[in-house]
Amino acid sequence: MSLYALPAAVIVAYYPHFVKGYLVSKQTGKWNNISPRDNVNKAEKQMTQDVWRRAKRCESAHQNGLENFPIFAAAVIVANMSGVPVSTVNFLSTSYVITRVIYNFIYMNNESASVAGLRTLTWGVSIGISFTLYFLAARKGLSP
Description:
About 80% of the residues lie in helices and about 0% in strands. By secondary structure, the chain is mostly helical. It starts with a helix and ends with a helix. It comes from Funneliformis caledonium.
């Protein structure tokens, strides 16, 4: 089951990217596929400030998901290879995906400093889950 969390985590990481594309396309009527990474910045003057800020937050949530994914993926693989109990790896992997969904929701929809602290907390929990998997794997050691 934990290996299914890997594609799920990829989907969760890319979801904000597609929301960003939708927001830009809806506000500007176009999407520049030649230089897509510049779309949000180039579209700022064509978008309402609320929507532009949300698109920027989506961009950041997507980037954070991409940065976080390799840490998680390696942790899941190593935990599985080292013989960490399947139920533990499954629980932690599912918890990671749920935490990242919450992280994205908060990041994409929040402009409050106090709620941003919750985003940081969910990020910390997701990293903590990955490190927990690493530590559990290290205790078990890899079998030859």
